[in-house]
Amino acid sequence: MQATLTELHRETAKIVRPVIHGQRTVTITDYGQPRAKISPVYERQEVTEDQLRDSVISDQAILDALAESRE
Questions:
Q1: Cα(4)–Cα(10) distance, rounded to whole angstroms?
Q2: Count of structural domains, the chain
Q3: Which residues pair with 28 in a beta bridge?
C-alpha cells in the first residue's frame, strides 16, 4: 500500500492500524516519490487448522505469548 504524507497526516490511524496488526507494509510518498516505509515489527504468522489441531498448547504458554506480544 502507498500513502502520501498528506494522507498519513489526515488518516494516521486508518493507515497505520493494519501495519500494527501485521497485515501490510506502507510506503510513504512525497511528491510522487517513495520516501519511507512503515512496517510491522513482527511478521504475522499464519497457522493452518491442521497445525493448530496437531499442536498442544498450555494455557500458560498462551499467556506468556500474549505478554511477550505486548512488550
A1: 10
A2: 1
A3: 3, 36
